[in-house]
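May I ask for whichever protein you like with its backbone structure tokens?
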Amino acid sequence: MRYFIELSYNGKNYHGWQIQPNASSVQEVIQKALSTLLRKEVSIMGAGRTDAGVHASQMFAHFDVDTHIDVTELMNRMNAFLPQDIVIIAIFLTEDEAHTRFDAVSRSYEYRIWLGRNPFLIDTTWQVYQQQLDIEKMNESAQLLLNYSNFKCFSKSKTDVKTYNCKITKAVWRLDGSSLVFHITADRFLRNMVRAIVGTLVEVGLGKKSKEDVVTIIESQDRTKAGVSVPAQGLFLAKVAYPTTIVKNR
């Protein structure tokens, strides 16, 4: 039987989602908790990977067991067992062939900037102060992303991928008081892609780059021409979407 887990986490204390030697990861912590509570070795597969310090408002993972599980009881026990920076939102039975990574139809990220200083948001925003950003120009440049498919220029160097193509369907900045949030949705993302895009668009907002520069950067397929990678703590995996046959009413 295959079960999906819906969860969220604060990534500050973790070296990303994926299990790796000599570093704490979200996947490892959840996998150990499941194995302990179910009294058997359980492996989980996540919908994707987040880098060190990156958060998730919504992440999915799946695991397989031979017997029926009381999902409400397991969810409650896991939330009592796990550290407070990881929260299980739901556990539910799904199709045996459903896959959290390969069946996802889109992923949405948010990058959160605080325009000023706020001591209570240090771990969840990139704080930009003493600088004025032209949000209108940033949004105009963000819309250019929807015209392209190859985003090698925003990918981390030496990344082992078969293709740099992604279909971006949404890219918009929204300002609410001192909170500036970049929303982006695509069928897939390259490693470090969102942070590099944000870094480039912020340079547009500062007047260091133009819309024409953004076009040149994308068409160059050269990472060295794009902006810097912005800090990890402002990035959130916000939503993972699936066909309703797999994840119903979520």
